[in-house]
Request: fold
Amino acid sequence: MNEIKYSKLSSNEIPLLLNAIENVLIETEAHDLSGSKNSTWKWQYEDLPTSKSHIFIAKKDSEIIGYYHIPTYEIKINNESFKIGHIQSVAILNAYRGKGIFKELADFANKEVDNHLDIIYTFPNKKSIHTFTEYNQFKLIAPLPVYLLPLDISQLLASRYKIPKILESMFSIFNLAFQILKKKLNQDEKLIELFEIDQQVEDFFIEFGNKSTFRLLRNKQYLKWRYLDSPKGEHKIVCLKHKNLIKAITVIKKEEIFSSTGLVIMDIAYENKQYLQKLITNLPNKDLFNTNNSETFIFASGLDKNIKSLKNCGFIPIPQKAVPRQLNLLARWTNSSINKTLTARSSWLITLGDWDVF
Reply:
């Protein structure tokens, strides 16, 4: 395929790129076609806090047949700031797949950004993970564990399987069990929806992030851009307060997973795991999306030292083979001064907010 040319995207090629993205989304039968809209693309790659993205394309004649996006963010490693690139939307048009073009484009892109970034990370699917590990020197940090809190087991199972009516009533026993495991609020605690990111909220996220060696800088600018300004559906920010002091915060989104509708935990910050459990298990009581509590589950995933504690309040660990889209965190160091012990999963704070899909 010598006629294929690889280059960095120029501003006058953006319409061609958006057309290529639309074609890929149609070919893959993606449930969300907003990625090809100019407004969504601009938000994701131009309006982000750093205002900097590295975008590369594969081009045949005047047609863009492949693309490779790397938006950049500020990360903190201990107390030091670095630049990180997140490999996000990557694809090759169907007619050109299986010809080694993705590998060539990935090689070109990764070599080009080595002089601009300190770290690169990504969450590839199982079809492309070998390209990153075998050819681009990425290291597998860890698969992200997945936890599910069923809110209505009969509806959740009925969305995927045919269940006899006689069995549906039996599942009410399990629903009751989850209600028992739910962490109750005391009289001085309440859940409050937040509609802006103020200094108190920013400070809370920063302080929580400082407990992890590696984390994106979740400051006011990032949180507002990522969640409040997002064109990818509505995000809700909810905090647990004790005597008017914030003890835990979460960002949630309503999504369809496992062929059913539920609440997705996008981001978290908390004082201790007990407050985290109280906040998340009491979310259904708020009916934040005005749907009369039609959500059948709460979905949580990420790398955080206390995420496994969700098992103590009714969340079920989901085997990786049962997860529709497995998330594997891969990273590559371009700055030789960075301590390579960061390949330890315990060094990282990763939430679903790090992923570009929701």
Summary: The CA atoms of residues 191 and 240 lie 5 Å apart. The longest helix spans residues 14-27.
